[in-house]
Amino acid sequence: PHWVSGPEAEVQRMAWAVAAVLGLLLLLGSPGGCGGSPGPPRDSLREELLLSPLPSGDIAATFQFRARWDSELHREGVSHYRLFPKALGQLISKYLVRELHLSLTQGFWRTRTWGQPYLQAPAGAELWVWFQDSVTDVDKAWKELSNILSGIFCASLNFIDSTNTVTPTASFKPLGLANVTDHHLLRYAVLPREIVCTENLTPWKKLLPCSSKAGLAVLLKAERLFHTSYHSQAVHIRPICRDASCLSVSWELRQTLTVVFDTFSIGQGKRDWSLFKMFSRTVTEACPLASESKIYVDISSKTQENELLEVTPPPLSVHEASVQGDRRTYAVYDLLSPLLFNVSRSLNVQLKWKRPQDSLDLSTPVLHAQRYVSGYGLQTGEISTLIYNTHPYRAFPVILLETVPWYLRLYVHTLVITTKGKENKPSYIHYQPAQDRRRPHLLEMLIQLPANSVTKITIQFERALLKWTEYTPDPNHGFYVSPSVLSALVPSVLAMKAEDAEKSPLFTSLFPSADGSSYFVRLYTEPLLVNLPTPDFSMPYNVICLTCTVVAVCYGSFYNLLTRTFHVEEPSRGGLAKRLANIIRKVRGVPPL
Amino acid sequence: MGYRLPCGVRFPTTLTPFSSPEADAALLPLQEDSLGALTVYVIPETSPLLPQGVGVYVGKHRSAVMRCPQGPGDVLAAVSARVQQIVQAMSFTTDSITAALSDRVPMDQLGTDTRRPFKSSLGYEITFSLLNPDPKSHDVHWDIEAAVSGYVQPFLDKLGSVANFSVDSQILYYAVLGVSPRFDKASSSFILSALSLPHVINPVEARLGSSATSLYPVLNFLLYVPERIHSPLYIQDKDGAAVGTNAFHSPRWGGIMVYNVDHPAPDKALLPLRVDVDMVRVMEVFLAQLRLLFGISQVPLPEEFLLESPGNKGLTDWELDRLLWTRTVENIATVSTTLTSLAQLLDKIGNIVIKDDVASEVYHAVASAQTAMLELASGHLGSAFQASKEAVISSERAFFDPSLLHLLYFPDDQKFPARDSLSV
């Protein structure tokens, strides 16, 4: 509680004194008086929600909030913020960050049943950062940055240290503007054990200009968002071109949130969806600060077979785009257009399936992968990764990045890559062996995937014995191995034309597209859970108990032997009561007392 | 601190009489301009330099001009008494020094004024926030960059020797005050009474956020544009009268100002209404509050004293000196408290290991504090302040060194069972 003192009179007196001075200054045309001075950097906000029904009957909702700030943060030393959050802006200026990507995810995106994700994130927390080339000590900046981010987002990112940080050489190229790509300025770390909960959602929502009071952010209620099969929230900061000529740089902050609602737990088995059913809220207005606020609903399956999917209220416009090699149609609801709220005050988008869905064919995604641990016992094991290329006739290369903790000692000479029974040699391998307690293993490979094939990558490892203080509080749960990352330019069947990033929907401009014939995909495999040989932690207690017992017994009996004395005791004749009792006992036939 | 009396300085009578500020500026090169010193010029009673009825003129640098008091009796004693008055006004007094120590020593007789200024620190962060709880009705724009560089930055530059400052600003939308204002029929406006003011700040503070990148204390200045349905909004003081500046401040935290917007007649209204904030009015109030929060308060001057206005910088040299005196004393007190706590801690917990670099920091802190005291005794304010600052830095570094905690949580009673079982 704050107490307030009230020398308002003094303030007033002071104010008049200062006013005289300031008035004088104004008359003399002090710097920055009226007009003439350049306005503050312009910034704009766009928000978007994409609802895509998945082939398995579930529905995925992707929120994107994008704040663009036309200012060169590093050169001007700017510290006046409007739509761009102050906490992140200060972070970028102080640590000379060029790109920052942080994601917190719960669950796993099942590529096989759900299709290709727009932006997938690995389970747990993932942080990768490109620094400017003027940074002198990248490791120190990385450590301080991860600590501050863990404070801002209430996540335990302070566990990121040198044992789980790597410097990839080929994956994770910058997603924004970049002229220098020295990979020593990149740091990547994953914490697979991190859990996402409401405490992480609240600071994420606080960064939005409209907070959760207006616009699409009204739908973000924690009790519904965490009742899902997959929940991923991310923050992406990168520099982009201010306009087509690209003479100056703007900063872009994208906050994305992807959730997948499960048919059976939410929909009670029926596959009809509505905003109210999913979020227990409807949208009433757009955020007044947003220049664009739209809801897109994927109705591609409607056009393939007529009247399969019905969307109410009827959309005012329809947008067609080729996304990830597919021609898709989207129903568009523009929250800023006054026609939308003519009929009712709130917007509740509903999807109804007309026909049962088993008639829909599930198209398998072109690229998907799987990883597992095999072997027996607690000494050795084998990590296997299976990568599937289901394209009928095109082959394409994929970069695989694997980070394995130091306590699983990989044997690189056992690395075997086979495709269709034949050995497949990677055209680029970068391997950095681990150093105990200092650095994890890093393995990066560029593998060519032939058309319509399965590639299997196996590598054997040996489990190490850790020191007894290094085990986690629950060592029998197992130790996590972070997911491996696959980055590929997947060739698309359709030619996609490059659209202007400002006019196209946000979900199409996530990744910069090099040309129209392929699209960029980044996939993550499952994290692995590996058991390490754990000692019996109750042994110190057992030893103490046993030792103390033995000592007590030995010492006790020895002491007794040495100090116990025997003396004879006369049996007493007993009193009257005893003699009477003995008489009765003799009568009964029981031995006397 | 010393005062010199070049009595009876004569001005050429052929020229047009100087005005007091010009005289002050002309005399400036004559002074040594050393930090902490004051120069008092005594002029004859009949001199036209000072206007009628003004006995003393206090300049904006470290000098004052006073009339030789006439009258029977010991002239020197009268002059000395007047000079004593001037020194009390322009430099430190016993009260101001004890007020600086008010955190260390429990004193009940000092008023709430002593708890208002921020404690001495090596740096401060100043954040200006514009709160717009109703962006649908008001589209508020403020030219904060120009206002900061024009009004606040000169003040902070003058204070640059005291601490490091960094200024930033932000606009927060949908940030409401914690209290819903009452509607007052008499004035057909909304009222925030003085009693409800303490509850205003807490809900807002969650959205303000502190700086992610530094550990310095933050001064928050908020400009609140009330919602359309709650306009106009006035703050009432304890007596029930509306406060003239419509602003209030909270000690050791910052200030809040309510900015009312004129609404045109409802049928002509086109939402959202564009509002361009008048930065002059706002900066007046914020600068005044900033002065108060730093403890640069006005000492009540007796009559016949004429004060020269501080000009662009907002702060006169002698006010800065006064601040430096109190800060130096506060710093030395802080150093002694920190080192004493460290010593007591070491007595209580034998497990703490003091490494060599921590020990050298402690020695350095003690040496700097002793230097500061010596310099203070001889009146060298600048070097005393620097020494006290170094002492504070060293003592904080020694006290908060993480290596002190290494073996802290391995208490003795846990060591015995393990040792016993090993020995048997």
From TrEMBL, chain A:
Species this chain originates from: Chelydra serpentina
GO biological process: attachment of GPI anchor to protein
Protein name according to UniProt: Phosphatidylinositol glycan anchor biosynthesis class T
One GO CC term, this protein: GPI-anchor transamidase complex
Keyword RNA-binding carried by entry: no
Keywords: Signal
Signal peptide, first to last residue: 1-36
Pfam families from the UniProt entry: Gpi16 (PF04113)
From TrEMBL, chain B:
Keywords: Endoplasmic reticulum, Glycoprotein, GPI-anchor biosynthesis, Membrane, Transmembrane, Transmembrane helix
Compartments where located: Endoplasmic reticulum membrane
GO cellular component: GPI-anchor transamidase complex
Membrane topology qualifier: Multi-pass membrane protein
Pathway(s) this gene product operates in, as recorded in its UniProt entry: Glycolipid biosynthesis; glycosylphosphatidylinositol-anchor biosynthesis
InterPro entries cross-referenced by the UniProt entry: PtdIno-glycan_biosynth_class_S (IPR019540)
BP GO annotations: attachment of GPI anchor to protein; GPI anchor biosynthetic process
Keyword Nucleotide-binding belongs to the record: no
Pfam families attached to this UniProt entry: PIG-S
Principal location class: endoplasmic reticulum
Entry similarity comment: Belongs to the PIGS family.
The protein, known as: Phosphatidylinositol glycan anchor biosynthesis class S
Organism listed in the record: Chelydra serpentina (Snapping turtle)
